[in-house]
């Protein structure tokens, strides 16, 4: 029997918590002057209508609890997707929605299948809820091969577009997998779908084992509001609701409910945001390619890139020294890649200027010399 004394710092922790490797969010720097391209936030303000509705909601009614069913918001989401409110679940960001799905729909003994390069919260959820997690390798081009997921499982989780690669699956690949994997739930995480991918929401009525998860953090510019939602068969939504009501019956406050509904109603603003971001994404990909970077084909609001002659960790630090933040992951297959959020056009131009100086300092210096 071991006589090793417990760590004083964790002596009151549960055994499950001691063995947990928590998710690490991107850096949120203090102070001003940063070009923040590390957490896939929207570079533009949210809908003015959403800001107005939130200001109106912040009145004396805050003494009252919000609607625990979020009915008005669910009705708006359902109408936009041709569904019924009973097929919609809302939560405190898509992370909470996903966590409830792992808890309520994916715990059946077999492993949950996720891409080996994907959102790093998925294995954390598995560890938190005691669910076996089995990474499924992407191919040599960092693409999901849906046929690889035809193996015993308690559920499948596919981000589409994938993060951090940005590569999207065609809708027919999702349909193909749903038609063949019928014994467990397929969760399609569509946090970035509005930037050029095909949503699986149109398949919800066709496949009762499909759960589609989206967020207002990206294309609606509301990362600070924390609102996400799921679309699925009534039975799946009821499972998520049961988990919610066993944990926190009021995940969205009055201000969030008002702002989320207004943001969804202001479809013209969302279209404008996504169009500007997609245009900057394509510009940035061309400029980085011209600097010698290899850029994966992204349908998200970020790019995953590598330079064959420059260390990714070194570039990240050199950029940080210039107050430009990008994301680096230490996973072996992408350890020499950087994930770069598409910022505003001026932010993208500042990044390219800094990288031009870092990649080819001699040419950059000579370009600044005024001819005699």
From TrEMBL:
<keyword id="KW-0808">Transferase</keyword>
<feature type="domain" description="Aminotransferase class I/classII large">
    <location>
        <begin position="33"/>
        <end position="355"/>
    </location>
</feature>
<keyword id="KW-0032">Aminotransferase</keyword>
<keyword id="KW-0368">Histidine biosynthesis</keyword>
<comment type="subunit">
    <text>Homodimer.</text>
</comment>
<dbReference type="InterPro" id="IPR015424">
    <property type="entry name" value="PyrdxlP-dep_Trfase"/>
</dbReference>
<keyword id="KW-0028">Amino-acid biosynthesis</keyword>
<dbReference type="GO" id="GO:0004400">
    <property type="term" value="F:histidinol-phosphate transaminase activity"/>
</dbReference>
<dbReference type="GO" id="GO:0000105">
    <property type="term" value="P:L-histidine biosynthetic process"/>
</dbReference>
<dbReference type="InterPro" id="IPR001917">
    <property type="entry name" value="Aminotrans_II_pyridoxalP_BS"/>
</dbReference>
<dbReference type="InterPro" id="IPR050106">
    <property type="entry name" value="HistidinolP_aminotransfase"/>
</dbReference>
<feature type="modified residue" description="N6-(pyridoxal phosphate)lysine">
    <location>
        <position position="218"/>
    </location>
</feature>
<protein>
    <recommendedName>
        <fullName>Histidinol-phosphate aminotransferase</fullName>
        <ecNumber>2.6.1.9</ecNumber>
    </recommendedName>
</protein>
<keyword id="KW-0663">Pyridoxal phosphate</keyword>
<dbReference type="GO" id="GO:0030170">
    <property type="term" value="F:pyridoxal phosphate binding"/>
</dbReference>
<dbReference type="InterPro" id="IPR004839">
    <property type="entry name" value="Aminotransferase_I/II_large"/>
</dbReference>
<dbReference type="InterPro" id="IPR015422">
    <property type="entry name" value="PyrdxlP-dep_Trfase_small"/>
</dbReference>
<comment type="similarity">
    <text>Belongs to the class-II pyridoxal-phosphate-dependent aminotransferase family. Histidinol-phosphate aminotransferase subfamily.</text>
</comment>
<comment type="pathway">
    <text>Amino-acid biosynthesis; L-histidine biosynthesis; L-histidine from 5-phospho-alpha-D-ribose 1-diphosphate: step 7/9.</text>
</comment>
<dbReference type="Pfam" id="PF00155">
    <property type="entry name" value="Aminotran_1_2"/>
</dbReference>
<dbReference type="InterPro" id="IPR005861">
    <property type="entry name" value="HisP_aminotrans"/>
</dbReference>
<dbReference type="InterPro" id="IPR015421">
    <property type="entry name" value="PyrdxlP-dep_Trfase_major"/>
</dbReference>
């Amino acid at each position: 029997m071991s006589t090793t004394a417990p760590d004083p710092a964790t002596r009151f922790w549960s055994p499950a918590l001691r063995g947990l490797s928590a998710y690490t969010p991107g850096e949120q720097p203090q102070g001003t002057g940063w070009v923040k391209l590390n957490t896939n936030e929207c570079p533009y303000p949210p809908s003015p209508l959403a800001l107005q509705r939130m200001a109106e909601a912040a009145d004396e009614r805050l003494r009252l609890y919000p609607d625990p069913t979020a009915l008005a918001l669910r009705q708006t989401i359902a109408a936009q997707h041709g569904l019924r409110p009973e097929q919609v679940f809302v939560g405190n960001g898509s992370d909470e929605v996903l966590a409830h799905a792992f808890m309520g729909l994916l715990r059946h003994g077999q492993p949950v299948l996720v891409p080996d390069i994907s959102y790093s919260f998925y294995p954390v959820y598995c560890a938190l809820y005691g669910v076996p997690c089995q990474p499924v390798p992407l191919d040599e081009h960092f693409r999901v091969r849906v046929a690889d997921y035809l193996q015993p499982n308690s559920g499948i989780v596919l981000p589409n577009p994938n993060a951090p690669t940005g590569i999207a699956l065609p809708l027919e690949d999702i349909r193909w997998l749903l038609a063949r994997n019928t014994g467990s739930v397929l969760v399609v995480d569509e946090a970035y779908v509005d930037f050029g991918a095909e949503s699986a929401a149109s398949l919800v009525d066709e496949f009762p084992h499909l759960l589609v998860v989206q967020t207002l953090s990206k294309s609606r510019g509301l990362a600070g509001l924390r609102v996400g939602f799921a679309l699925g068969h009534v039975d799946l939504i009821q499972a998520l609701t049961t988990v919610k009501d066993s944990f926190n019956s009021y995940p969205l406050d009055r201000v969030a409910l008002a702002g989320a509904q207004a943001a969804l109603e202001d479809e013209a603003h969302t279209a404008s945001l996504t169009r500007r971001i997609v245009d900057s994404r394509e510009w940035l990909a061309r400029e980085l390619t011209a600097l010698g970077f290899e850029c994966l084909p992204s349908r998200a609001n970020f790019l995953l890139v590598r330079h064959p002659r420059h260390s990714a960790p070194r570039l990240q630090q050199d950029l940080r020294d210039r107050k430009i933040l990008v994301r680096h992951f230490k996973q072996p297959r992408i350890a020499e890649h950087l994930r770069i959020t598409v910022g505003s056009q001026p932010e993208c131009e500042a990044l390219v200027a800094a990288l031009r100086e870092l990649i080819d300092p001699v040419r950059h210096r000579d370009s600044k010399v005024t001819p005699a």
